[in-house]
Amino acid sequence: MRSLFHWFHALSRHWLYDVLHGSLFEIDHDTIKVLDWIADQESGNPESAASPACPDQIPGVDRTALQAIWNDLRVLGLFSVQEAELPRIKQNKPANLKALCLHIAHDCNLRCRYCFGETGAFGGDRSLMSPEIAFAAIDFLLQESGPYDHLELDFFGGEPLLNFETVKKTVAYGRQAAQAAQKNIHFTLTTNSYNLDDEKLAYLNAQGLLLVLSADGRPAVHDYMRPGAGGQATSERILKNIGNAVRSRNDSDYYVRGTFTRHNLDFATDVKFLYDQGFRSISVEPVIAGPEAPYGIREQDLPGIYAEYDKLADFCLECAAAGDPLRYFHFAIDLEHGPCILKLISGCGAGYDYLAVTPTGDLYPCHQFVGREGFRMGHVTTGIERTDLRQAFGGADLFAKEGCTQCWARFLCSGGCHANAHLINGDILQPDRMGCALLKKRMECALGLQGAIKELKQVSAS
Ligand code: SF4
Ligand code: SF4
Questions:
Q1: pTM for the whole thing?
Q2: In the listed set 22, 48, 81, which residue is the last one of a domain according to the structure?
Q3: How confident is the model over 224-265, as pLDDT tens digits?
Q4: CA 229 to centroid of chain Cα atoms
């Protein structure tokens, strides 16, 4: 029952989420008590069986009648829905590539304290990708794409603007090669924005690249975690550059992406700060680090982080009500037009239909695995050599991951991040439990927000 329905409190209301159908209902407090009672009946919880008084305390609720309804629902099979068909859908997934993350520069002009790429070099030498390797990566993507027509390529680093001439050549080559193959490549560039001047911006706008622009929020927070290579403060220049970028593309096709750590557990204030700078597409995410890192999130931080997500959900609703919505990436779910079932059960595709490429052309399951021992999968000129790894990543879906098939958030999460699971537990099939807790809280906020905003629209339309 609790893996098929989830009832919770968000934005000062009670909600019921139907996991298999993706439906959301607003419910009252008494319904919560009845649902708790039904769930306890079903699980045979001996404590509740000994004192199943809860529904009797609700005026108008007769426990005998409720028991009869419950029995009828069970006979109808409502709480015994089988998901057995879903793994078979997965077998139809093509073993082809959809996306590449190109580490166009293993170098950086910042020295972020939490950088999982060891401030740009990813455990190796500081180096830039040559145009030849970048072109070979494009050829590899097109060759391996099979039935996929719409492909993705992200210029990543380190800092991609340090190798901007190669970025430009690669876009030109990619457009031409894709056209010849009757396909389309959509380009994204993820930058720390320190060198995002007018000339580069004009090119990126003209070519229609999606921009992911990194900034952590309040200057004191940002400057402490994201100093320049010379130790200098960077927020003033970065915020100015991001402001120019956002205005120049009329608030579209960008995300301002930040990271929160143990040092700014009040990160809702940082999101509001970024909103006050005029940015409307914002993603501020928990740092990728174990709890032993001085800035790593720890178990005892969770209640405070939940409260911040609640504040953010309230803020998103306020912004929507004021007609100036905040698109907060982590609350962006779409129950009505969400991804297909194949995507919902198979997750991010890292190591299977999405790979990362280093400056020397080596292939890894995703940007976070670059440099991790045992995860080199092949080379852009010779293809995938470690077919065992590809199989392992392809099989790391909801049905293989520990605890996921019983989790109410499974179709919103799709099994979590393989890299986090490996970082924390040394196994891509064992999800990072702290990450799960944060994901579930975010999904409660996101679902509540969907319901509240829908009601807001209905009220203003009537
Ligand atoms: S800007 Fe990115 S690559 Fe550079 S140090 Fe910071 S996190 Fe690392
Ligand atoms: S990774 Fe965690 S949150 Fe995601 S479906 Fe699995 S158990 Fe649920």
A1: 0.90
A2: 81
A3: 999 999 999 999 999 999 999 999 998 899 999 999 999 999
A4: 29
